[in-house]
Amino acid sequence: MSTESNSKPTVAFIGLGIMGAPMAANLVKAGFDVVGYNRSEAAVQALVAQGGRGAGSTAEAVRDADIVITMLPDSPDVEQVITSVLEHSHPGQLVIDMSTIRPDVSRSIAAAAAKVGVRVLDAPVSGGEAGAIEGNLSIMVGGAEADFEAARPVFEAVGSTIVHVGPHGAGQTVKAANQLIVAGNIQLLAEAVVFLESAGVDLERGLRVLGGGLAGSTVLNRKSEAMRTRNFAPGFRLALHHKDMGIVTAAAREAGVVIPLGSAVAQLIGALVARGDGQLDHSALLKLTEELSGRTTD
Amino acid sequence: MSTESNSKPTVAFIGLGIMGAPMAANLVKAGFDVVGYNRSEAAVQALVAQGGRGAGSTAEAVRDADIVITMLPDSPDVEQVITSVLEHSHPGQLVIDMSTIRPDVSRSIAAAAAKVGVRVLDAPVSGGEAGAIEGNLSIMVGGAEADFEAARPVFEAVGSTIVHVGPHGAGQTVKAANQLIVAGNIQLLAEAVVFLESAGVDLERGLRVLGGGLAGSTVLNRKSEAMRTRNFAPGFRLALHHKDMGIVTAAAREAGVVIPLGSAVAQLIGALVARGDGQLDHSALLKLTEELSGRTTD
Amino acid sequence: MSTESNSKPTVAFIGLGIMGAPMAANLVKAGFDVVGYNRSEAAVQALVAQGGRGAGSTAEAVRDADIVITMLPDSPDVEQVITSVLEHSHPGQLVIDMSTIRPDVSRSIAAAAAKVGVRVLDAPVSGGEAGAIEGNLSIMVGGAEADFEAARPVFEAVGSTIVHVGPHGAGQTVKAANQLIVAGNIQLLAEAVVFLESAGVDLERGLRVLGGGLAGSTVLNRKSEAMRTRNFAPGFRLALHHKDMGIVTAAAREAGVVIPLGSAVAQLIGALVARGDGQLDHSALLKLTEELSGRTTD
Amino acid sequence: MSTESNSKPTVAFIGLGIMGAPMAANLVKAGFDVVGYNRSEAAVQALVAQGGRGAGSTAEAVRDADIVITMLPDSPDVEQVITSVLEHSHPGQLVIDMSTIRPDVSRSIAAAAAKVGVRVLDAPVSGGEAGAIEGNLSIMVGGAEADFEAARPVFEAVGSTIVHVGPHGAGQTVKAANQLIVAGNIQLLAEAVVFLESAGVDLERGLRVLGGGLAGSTVLNRKSEAMRTRNFAPGFRLALHHKDMGIVTAAAREAGVVIPLGSAVAQLIGALVARGDGQLDHSALLKLTEELSGRTTD
To answer: Exactly one of B8, B29, B115, B175 is catalytic; which is it?
Structure first.
């Protein structure tokens, strides 16, 4: 027993929310010694019930950990928690931030960590709550190759597609690019759907032809049904995609990269959130496109 | 022998260009009696060499045909040829326009044909020259169900995905929606590529992750390599996509459908054509996006 | 007396609508011998009551005229009427089309007229119904210098700013540019207004400062009050501006000119018309911008 | 003499750059006791040569001042300096930030200052270097009415249009709205110019007509000549307008306000800066629009 616990590193897991909780649970299942911390005590107790250990503070969680994982809502949360992590960390620790945040913040964190001898990876994920529960997330990792290899067992416990994509910040950049393409593809599909319906096209057949050619996409495969039936239950909420488009536009601006379509769809998502539709699935871009085209039925 | 030739209808094929020539040849191979007409005599002779018959005019081609196919560059060409076809047609003939034109022109043609007892289908294709040669085009068909069924043997000689999508004009609408989505998906991929490269992301790996998730698309699968290597040999030329975006924006405007992304990417394609890049593949949207981001190497 | 009436040319005026009727009346007041024709008889009678003469057809109106003016809703109307005018015209006549239409149609008309020895000017106006009644329209004229000079007395009877801006089509191009700038300026003001109100800015004071600096414009001077009070009674109706933006986008596309802002505001105007707001003043772009920002009160 | 100098308050002026130096000099001329501080010693000496006093640090400048003015490049500079100002300030002091920064930063500063009993105004200016030298800047002021009145003598020494537009942050919001409208108006003019030239319109005459109607604007009056002659010497540099558009888009996003045209023109300005044209006047939006339309001559 003690042999086995010695053989697996201790992982501090900070942020046991919708994504973090099942990820931490999967680490426990994979045999890691997981010490969880979350602002709300209930989430910590849930982890303990699944075989993890609980900590009363970031400091306590980090103290004896080999690896520290953060899974938090947004850039300011990560900045604040990592500051605390670095205060209590020891040289040689590996910190993996799996939150979706701005690439420049990931780079700043890496620079700050390097000063105290701590190694850092940015490793945002895609695949949503379902992927977190099933342990088959896609993980895009930025940082040093050796650190990526050191973290691989952890990644394999929570994900199935695991790719080292470049230096610090590169993981966040790929995640941002993902959100850019997804938002755009959804909006293009929405424009096509309204256009097809306006001409009396049989939507199911029309989308079938489109899906079989160069217009085919995972968005078309997965979101057409929601659009056809106007069922906008999430899925991935517009409020989160809005946050992510903020990252995309800020990062592109910082890099001097012009993104005309990304910028335009960010405005449309912003409109939906401003109007109070932030809790709908991002396929609800159809709703706005329909209203702009005077085609609402309600 | 005569039995066999009697068993297959006679097809007049008007427009033996890059797409039309191999389509007509495939009809010959499938056993149809094909009478071809083209403005340039050489194209007619090429069809005759492959077993078809030649006609010296639209009138001559149409006279004894059961089915008339038109495959022409743009709306005005189709309007002009169909006017001539209808002058020389006889009631009961089936006219199939396989050109990519404005949906409202298809509807006008159907109305004009109905007055003289001629049945019409709009049946634009996708799949490019390769699909035309191999006989595996996608065909999206608008018109009456019975006429679609009557035309099915002809469609099966030139295509593999054959879908009746709605009333007159619906085929063109689906084709336009296809061009809208494809243009947008290419531009989004271009924005992502420039963004990824600006952050030092390993592009091959980054696109691999993106392709495996919700950002995946046929465009990403087929156009990433061209973008990575900046090889913009066509493929599908920007000049043609520009023509098609003119159809998309005009048809959407006529239908009162708002297409913010479609409209924005139409401007970008227009810019490339205006600058003299019309002969490049549409993946050259990357070239413009790079230049706008100050990232050109030449 | 008869000498004086002889000294003034006979003007055929075709199209006695909201703009045409007061313009024809001003020509009568200026002493011209005006022969009016309109599809609806009532408009012709109204002109006769003001001292003009009536005609029962385009042919009759054109027969003895020195100058023919057309003032019609849109490009197809002008094409049709001018065809009839040219059939009944005689060499040396001067045809002035004062409608707002596509520049390429103006150029086609000029080419067709030249073949039968008829001179043509395109001379669209701005200034609205009020300008037409008061005879102080702005007139932007395309065509030959000599023809412009020959038409000057006519222009001076209906307008106050009269400028020869270039060859055939140039008048329409300037009018289109006018509509592009006006639409954009209104939308920018609308964005500013929603933005200012969202921050609790005193709108009257804020706009006063803006108007005094580089952000000042005639749109700001004339449309701020309508925006502050949400009084969108026309003025210039969105349905007409929508028609004009169709001209702008088509003409820019034909010329290979990229208009990113023009294209974007055309979509917004299209949305308002699609939703049924076509009868509101174009300052109602504020209404859409507010709704997109979740700030509607009703 | 001493009486008069006693009657005027002491003003600490932090940030003696292109704008700050002449503003401080104008305060000296108006009889204020001005203590200047700037990171570079030379700027301080220049102020002393004009009758001001120099300080060696923010702390020293602030110590005995009645009023503290900051005139700094960007939000982070202001945040840093104000933190230092508040450390050394005394209750009752009035701090006026005349920099152009994000409205939310102005609001945060006001909140922080209130905690230590210091009153704050945000008072950004427009009018450029010329306006700063001539003392006729436009000043848009956010904060409490009483503080605005207390600051009025200072404002009157540097500006001619002085308006209290609302609560803390309102000054910055109006300045941001100004930059939004100006950027958009310039781009619309650029689109119109390229469009007019493409049709052979006499540009001087065409713009004259446009300027006389609803399309008229201060931008058209002041920037047409630069556009006609392609003289893009600043004036107001694109790099600065790019910074300001960052403020506009961030503030609009924070407020949930959708700005489709503002967002689009921000992309175009970003492109110019990315390509290395940041040192040109903002009228160089014409340059990009021309290139996108394939109309460059070099």
So the answer is: B175
Strand-pair partners of A122: A97, A142
Closest Cα to residue A283, out of A234, A215, A211? A234
C295–A276: do the CB atoms touch at under 8 Å? no
- ipTM, two decimals, is 0.94
C8 among known catalytic residues: no
Distance from the Cα of A144 to chain C's closest Cα (Å) equals 42
Cα–Cα distance list, D189 to B182, D182, D284 (Å)? 32, 11, 11
- With an 8 Å Cβ cutoff, the interface of chain C facing chain A consists of 260, 264, 271, 274-276, 291-295
Which residue among the candidates C29, C175, C223, C287 is catalytic per the annotation? Answer: C175
Cβ within 8 Å, pair A294-B256? yes
Residue of chain A minimizing CA distance to D271? A258
Between the alpha carbon of residue A279 and those of residues A179, B143, C183, C290, the distances in Å are 17, 41, 34, 20
Strand segments (E) across chain A: 10-14, 33-37, 53-54, 67-70, 94-97, 119-122, 125-126, 137-142, 159-166
Closest CA to A295 of A203, A225, A194: A194
A vs D: CB pairs below 8 A = 35
CA neighbor of C186 nearest in space, from C223, C232, C214: C223
Q: CA quadruple B167, B172, B178, B183: dihedral positive or negative?
A: negative
CA A110 → CA A89, A105, A107, distances in Å? 14, 9, 5
Residue B30's CB: how many other CB atoms inside 10 A? 16
Interatomic CA distance for residues D219 and C24, integer angstroms: 36
Does the beta-carbon distance from B166 to A200 stay under 8 Å?
yes
Q: Is the dihedral of CA A111, A115, A116, A117 positive or negative?
A: positive
Give residue-wise pLDDT tens across range B196-236: 999 999 999 999 999 999 999 999 999 999 999 999 999 89
Place of tokens 């994000």: D102
CA-based angle C249:B123:B179, to the nearest 5? 40
- For B229-278, the pLDDT digits (tens) are 999 999 899 999 999 999 999 999 999 999 999 999 999 999 999 999 99
Tokens of B258: 């708002």
Instruction: Give Cα C290 to chain centroid, integer Å.
Output: 29
* Residue of D256, D257, D274 with shortest CB distance to A258: D274
D-chain residues within 8 Å CB-CB of A264?
260, 263-264
D270 Cβ contact partners less than 8 Å away, ≥ 6 residues apart: A253, A256, A258, D242, D245
Query: Which residues of chain B are within 8 Å of residue C264 when distances are taken between CB atoms?
Result: 260, 263-264
Its pTM stands at 0.94
Sign of torsion, CA C31 C49 C137 C66?
negative
Does residue A102 contact residue A75 with C-beta atoms inside 8 Å? yes
- Rounded Cα–Cα distance for residues D257 and B269 (Å): 29
Q: Do residues A196 and A292 make contact, with C-beta atoms less than 8 angstroms apart?
A: no
